[in-house]
Write a structure and sequence with these properties.
Two copies of one chain form a homodimer. The first copy, chain A, is mostly helical. Chains A and B meet through helix 1, helix 6, helix 9 and helix 10 of A and helix 1, helix 6, helix 9 and helix 10 of B. Chain A binds a DNA duplex through helix 1 and helix 3.
Chain lengths: 207, 207
DNA sequence: TAAAAATGTGAGCAACTCTTCACATTTTCT
DNA sequence: AGAAAATGTGAAGAGTTGCTCACATTTTTA
């Protein structure tokens, strides 16, 4: 359902071939995401994941060469989903307030399945080089997205200054969403309204 | 140097009495903060801390009954320092832009020693009840601080709506600072300027 | 249907974790 | 100075973790 962005570096040990094993891998990835979201990196133990997935620890290691490759698989999937959601909201033509409202709604939606996952993937879980790279395809597309939005409302073409502004507002949004998720208050409408106002004000200001 | 906010729950096992042992405890706490900031909760092992502090593991357990009590000591110290810094910046009389500038400067300063510490303490490290409590003295003072700032510029007295707004802008600032710290770019002046603009715009808007 | 390939299992090893405790050293007290 | 108190040490026990491997079961192939 989601567009793959880049080939995974630490590939799977063995590609599942039959429907049964593909289901097994799917179950493992989902169990991993659940554990990561609910209990953080320190709760992310291979035995725990296998237990929650209802498969033996041996099955997990049939397809994932080590713990890190499993995190990478989860991260890969999550980033794909995030980008997909974001691509749907574009600034063209929309007034700042409306763009902000749609963006916040998309962000909230992206965090409603595994509220803690994004934060844990970003902050706690170790990542392979591919994802630490500030010039990774994902980082570039993500940053450009915000820089473009800022440039649109500043009525200029994206430049270095707008990249700084884009990253800043992106980090601010991230902070609000992430702290709301931590308190289990991601659906707080009053909070969402204030966040929309914050974004709209910042973008609307013709600096 | 810092005002104690609340008595610690999980006290020390034994109070250091001589100058030598007080220095030992100090070294351990600092080593702990360093490890927590640099390597996160998963790197925070008692043996590692003792090694970095240059004392034996036995010495650590002479004063701290367990690992958690050491985290609590570090957290306690960090919260004291944060509040102390924040108390110095008040909104009274200052135009929004100037208040925002001082606030950002204070936040940057508070994160320049152990850039990752705040985030790890908030998100990764387990905490005793005292600190998880959303009605803890710290949380209340922290929230009131922002609610007051919002109310000041909205020219009304703090109420429930301003608490929501206060928390939102606080979380936004937190996100920017925290993501900058993660990239090692907490001193980026361009970023700081944009953050100041964001805060000033939001506070200046008479909703 | 029989062989081959794919998939699933879980006891257990090596490495690491937190913590204790019997003991050695240093400082303070009388 | 000698005794008592405070401080410092690190080997080792009990528990947990990532991961392997010899083997059992299921599915596909011929």
């Amino acid at each position: 359902m989601s567009t793959r962005i880049a080939k995974q570096r630490s590939a799977m040990r063995k590609e599942p071939q039959q429907a049964r094993s593909r289901a097994t891998v799917e179950t493992i990835v989902q169990a991993g995401a659940r554990v990561l979201s609910d209990e953080g990196w320190s709760g992310f133990t291979t035995n725990r994941i296998a237990e929650l997935a209802g498969v033996s620890i041996g099955s997990l290691y049939q397809y994932f060469p080590d713990k890190l490759s499993l995190v990478d698989a989860i991260r890969h999937r999550h980033l794909d989903d995030s980008i997909t959601v974001m691509r749907k909201v574009r600034a063209d033509g929309l007034p700042p307030a409306e763009f902000a409202a749609q963006l916040v709604q998309a962000m909230v939606a992206a965090h409603s399945v595994y509220p803690g996952l994004h934060r844990v993937l970003l902050d706690e879980a170790p990542s392979s080089e591919e994802y630490r790279d500030p010039n990774s395809e994902f980082e570039i597309e993500y940053l450009s997205y915000y820089a473009e939005a800022v440039a649109t409302y500043r009525k200029r073409s994206p430049n270095a200054a707008y990249h700084v502004a884009g990253r800043m507002i992106s980090d601010a949004i991230d902070g609000v969403i992430h702290n709301a998720a931590r308190r289990g208050a991601i659906d707080d409408l009053a909070m969402q309204r204030e966040l929309v106002r914050l974004i709209a004000l910042y973008l609307g200001e013709t600096g």
